[in-house]
Amino acid sequence: MNPKFSSIVALRNNNLPLFKKLEGMLTSQGFPCLFAINSFYKNHMYIYDATRYEDDSRIYLDIYTQLKFFAQDTSDIDSEKNFYTLLVVLPDPQKTTPSYIEKFIFSFLMKLKEHDSTQENINRADILKEDFEFSLDNKIWFPVFLCPKHISTIRQSNISIIAFQPKKTFDVLKKCPNDFYEKTRKATHHRIDKIYDFNRPFFLSNKSSGINAIQYLGFDPIHPEEY
């Protein structure tokens, strides 16, 4: 089986409507993440369109396979500045309530994990742990969910996606000279503050639980009523 994900350049040539949707999302005033914007403009962004699936029982193995290919293709990034991201485009969720989004994303991650070569399984309690990191085949990923009408402003987009970013990408960026990582992170936080008129919502405040699941979902699952 050959990789099915495509580069952002190939997407522009082969699927211009989807490219335009992604470009519109990433260049909008409401999108704050400078790491993702760099990924797009430096052609380090790759896309896998999973919207065609009618039988969702197949989708998890296929996406797992795409992540495995992607990890293999980016295995040599340990020492170079990069912004590699794999965007998985999904059908829009039926609802965007906190409970539905949590169930959707947690179930998605648990079903991906079922294909893990380590034969480890995870459950909701695991994902809610303070030290939890999502891994496949011992490689750690940061999945970030966005969709139309998401309950959190900075997670609203014109399409539904889960962005999978390898942890080692951030590990490499943290070693870049001139405090590149920290400056980019602070600039992203400033963009977020401007979007929220310098009144951050609960999940971005010091009051939130601070678990990684917040990044996955776009709200704090420990305090789902606060967003």
Secondary structure elements and pairings:
Elements: E1 6-7, H1 8-14, H2 16-26, H3 34-41, E2 45-49, H4 59-73, E3 85-90, H5 98-113, H6 124-127, E4 134-136, E5 139-146, E6 160-166, H7 167-173, H8 180-195, H9 213-217
Parallel strand pairs: 2-3
Antiparallel strand pairs: 1-2, 3-6, 4-5, 5-6
Please tell me about this protein's structure:
The model has no long low-confidence stretch (mean pLDDT 93). Strands 1-2-3-6-5-4 form a six-stranded mixed beta sheet. Helices cover 39% and strands 14% of the residues. It has nine helices and six strands; from the N terminus they run βαααβαβααβββααα. With 227 residues, it is an alpha+beta fold. The termini are far apart.
Summarize the structure.
The protein is 39% helix and 14% strand.
Notable characteristics:
globular; alpha+beta
Task: State the end-to-end CA separation.
Answer: 42 Å
Q: Give the number of helices.
A: 9
Question: How much β-strand is present in the residues?
Answer: 5-15%
Average pLDDT, to the nearest integer? Answer: 93
Estimated radius of gyration: 17 Å
